[in-house]
Every structure is written in C-alpha cells, then in structure tokens.
Design goal:
The structure is a single chain. This protein has 313 residues and is α/β, with parallel strands linked by helices. It is 35% helix and 19% strand. The protein has eleven helices and eleven strands. The strands form three sheets. A five-stranded parallel β-sheet has the order 9-8-7-10-11. Strands 1-6-5-4 form a four-stranded antiparallel β-sheet. Strand 10, helix 7 and strand 11 form a beta-alpha-beta unit. Helix 3 packs parallel to helix 6, helix 4 crosses helix 5 and helix 7 crosses helix 9. The longest helix has 21 residues. The protein starts with a helix and ends with a helix.
Amino acid sequence: TEGEDHAYWQKHGCYPHMDMDMPAKILQLANGHKDFYEIPFRSHMKDGVACYGPVYLASKSRDIGLYLCRVKGCEYEMVTLKPQAVKREEMNSVSLVVEMAHIREHWAHRAPYYSKLDWPKDQGYLDTIIAAADIKRDDYVLDVGTGLGYVAHEAAQKAHQVIGLDVSPDMLAEVNGYKMPNEEFREGDIRAIPYPKHRFDKVFARMVVHGLIGERDVAMAMKECYRVLVYGGKFIFSEGIPPDRKTQAWYTEMFKLKEERRTMTVARMRTMMQRAGFKNIKATSYIMEDFSIANWIANSGLPDEQKERVMAA
C-alpha cells in the first residue's frame, strides 16, 4: 500500500513532501527501486481531478529533487529531499554538550585575532592542499574546521558547492559576511558531521584533528569524514608536524605551554586514516618558509605571561 511504501523509503532516508491539500492516495510508490528518483509516479492532481500526464525530474542535487508534469497548464510539483543525518545519541550526551560549550568559549576569545594570523592564509599552503584535492567543476566539497573559510574560498573557485563547518559561531560570524555564491557556512562538529553518507566528493580537514585529545574523538572524526565521502572521493588531511624525530619531544613540550594538543606525524596521520577505512593514502609536505612565531603568538589570544613562556621556549 501507499503507506507501507512511505515507511520503506523513510527507512532509507528519503522523504516525499506534498502540498497539504493533495490527497495522499494519488501518490503511488513502488518498493524495490534502487534510487528514490526511479519511483514511477502514476497520477497526480490537476484542477482537482487526477492527471495522468508524464511526471519528470526537472532538477536534482544531492539534497533535493523537483518533479513536474509535462501536461501544459498542470501545476503539479513534488519535492524530494534527503534529510541531514545528525548523530543525536552523540550530540545529546551531557559530556559532549559541556565540552562543546568550553570549545565555543575558547574560540569566541580567539576569533577576533584570527584574521591577523599569517599561516592560515599562506597562499603556498593553500595552493598545495587545493592541488592535492584535484577539484572538479561539479564537485561538492566540505571543509571541516573551516575557521575563517580560507580553504573553503579557494575550493569555491573550482567546485560546484562548498560547505564550511565549524564548531564556533563566533568564527562563522567573521566569515559569513564575505562568502561566495556557491558557499554555505554552518555550525557543526567534525565528530558528528550533519550530512548524510556519500554527500561530498572532497573533504578537507586542515589543522583540526590535533585539537582532539581523546583516541575515541579522533576515531569518530576520521570515520565521519570517511562516511560523508562518495566512493572514490578524496580526503585532504593536513596538520603541522615536527620537522624530524629529534625535535618531536621538544615540539610536544613547547606546545604544552600554549595549549593541550596532539603531536602529529605522517605515520600517525596515516594510521588514523587507515583505521577509518581510507585507502590509497599519499603524503605531501609543504614547508612554510616565512612562518612567523611572533605573529602566531601575538594573535593567539593568550595572556601576556603565557605568551612570554612560549617565546622563551
């Protein structure tokens, strides 16, 4: 029956939406179709009576489809959409809500200084990670931990659509004033990305994962990035690492003076990706020759005493 078919498609994450005055019995769905857009529509209403004109998919994106009728004068339309997939059991946990509050408070303090930092907008760095993505004109791109949207803006010059995701509403407030037409910025956590499976062709995570201290948090983040990628898509995972093993211990201790963070290496990053399911992993290095520690510390939002300790290290 029609009701059973509705339940079938809802289990698969697809929901039909009709005008409130349209009788439900006019929409006949059929089980067994691989794609919601293959459902054969048998009849619909035109001027209060059933119209059997051919219904066709007028437009479609990864989130929405619009069906119209080819009969002249028939104003029938139906919209189908795939709902956003939020992991409610994670986002509703008390510990995560408290943690997110602390994270937002931290970034609220840092947001006013962020645009003065040199490293996030280093053009050579941006060019390197954009080149690694090999973005196509019809690509859908996600930039998690977007910050002020520097990576998103670069990607938007090549892609069909770019979505920037960040946990900090204060950071997003800084970026929304100059977003491009094919960009969207919204609040969200890399550990519970609010989009369905296989939504994006390319996913960027630049300088985000080092801030996830718990192993479970890292695993959740990497699995989420893997989940929202299409088969054959690309995940561009970028972090700052010690230049060699000899300086790794110093690197870790020095950063402790600034903040709690995870020391990353190429080997650790590779392991994180492999555990999440990623394959065909390639590593590319970029050395930021003009990096200024003075600029980095001056715009860190730290108290002066703490800045002095970091500089002394």
